[in-house]
Amino acid sequence: MKDGCRDKLVGEEAAVPHGQVVDQERAVFTFATTHQAMVAEDVLREEPLHVEVVPPPHQLSAGCGLALRIALRDVPAARAALSREGAAFEALHALGPDQRDLRRLA
Fold first, then answer.
1. For residue 30, what is the enclosing H or E element?
2. Domains detected in the chain
3. By percentage, how much of the chain surpasses pLDDT 70?
4. DSSP secondary structure string, 34-95?
5. Predicted local confidence at residue 101, as pLDDT
6. In this predicted structure, what is the pLDDT of residue 62?
7. What does the alpha-carbon distance between residue 3 and residue 102 come to, in Å, rounded to a whole number?
């Protein structure tokens, strides 16, 4: 992430690390504040999930300009972890295989 945050932003065409399975369907959490995004990132990085810090899809307006992208199949585990730790998010959307089609999940 930028502006003093730990990770750099990952673009839509980010390279996949060697050996990582590519899951075409993804979900994206958006946040009202940068603080919420950072807390949620810390919580999700403690789980066995692949988490990417990305700009929110252009179709969405996120308060802080950061989003967390995960595999769609990991949404139940991610939501459980965030709930357990009291980490808030603004919205959750599923991204289609083209990374453009959005469907609101929460």
1. strand 26-30
2. 26-104 (3.30.70)
3. 75
4. HHHHHHHHHHHHTTT---EEEPPPTTS--SSS-EEEEEGGGHHHHHHHHHHHT---SEEEEE
5. 75
6. 59
7. 28
- The label of the residue with tokens 């050996």 reads 19
The per-residue pLDDT for range 70-92, each reduced to its tens digit, is: 999 999 999 999 999 999 999 99
Of 29, 41, 22, 52, nearest to 85 by C-alpha is 41
Given a cut of 50, is residue 29 above it in pLDDT? yes
Beta bridge partners of 52: 69
8-15 long-range contacts, Cβ below 8 Å, gap at least 24? Answer: 8/53, 9/53, 9/54, 9/55, 9/66, 10/52, 10/53, 10/54, 10/69, 11/54, 12/54, 12/99, 14/52
End-to-end CA distance of the chain: 24
**pLDDT higher than 60, residue 30:** yes
